[in-house]
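Let's study today's protein:

:::
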Amino acid sequence: MQYILTDIEGTSTSVAFVYEVLFPYFKENVADYFQKNYPHPDLEAPVAAVRATVLEERGETIDTAGVVEQLIAWTVADRKHTALKSVQGLVWAAAYQQGAIKGHVYPDVPPALEAWKKAGYQLGVYSSGSVAAQQLLFGFSEFGDLKPYFSHYFDTLVGPKREAASYHNILAALNLPASAVLFLSDVEAELDAAEEAGMHTIQLVRPGTTASAKHTLAADFTEIDLKKYTL
């Protein structure tokens, strides 16, 4: 085993941080962000994608205000739309850089990342949040900049997290066999998909998580024993 791939929400980071801090901040500030920054090259592609989805699903053409309303509605519904994730990343970037938000990371995570990195393991992230949002959370975390620990970041551009094909895509990008990768997540369906792709799996059973009967369990990163995966 050479590579540790980790989920974020519910695994390295509290679910409450996403739903009680990040999402509310986005809903309250996205309109103001558009007012100050649109049009902007970074917003062109996601705005076009939102309009295309609404046209396809509802047969409607929407203006910029309609795009903002749709982004808020998708945030409330927690829709995993790539355009939404991109805009969320932009809004949160401004918040992190202004010091309005710091990324929550469980205290057991940074020491484990450091130990694993020193032991020679490569580390990566796979989350439904955009790569930009992932890097912001770890870059502006409560424990400082954790980005140097990670060599790769993956989001839903490689595919949905509950489909085995997505994990095959990650393996192709890493140029590693499945047996060399350990995937950490709190969600059983994601672990099922990773296991179907041939990866090792561990479920993080944080507060509020329902333990799986099919995967190795760990209450936090300190309980993860990598010796059993050593070839």
In short: Residues 30 and 221 are 34 Å apart (CA to CA). The chain has two domains: 3-14+102-229, 18-98.
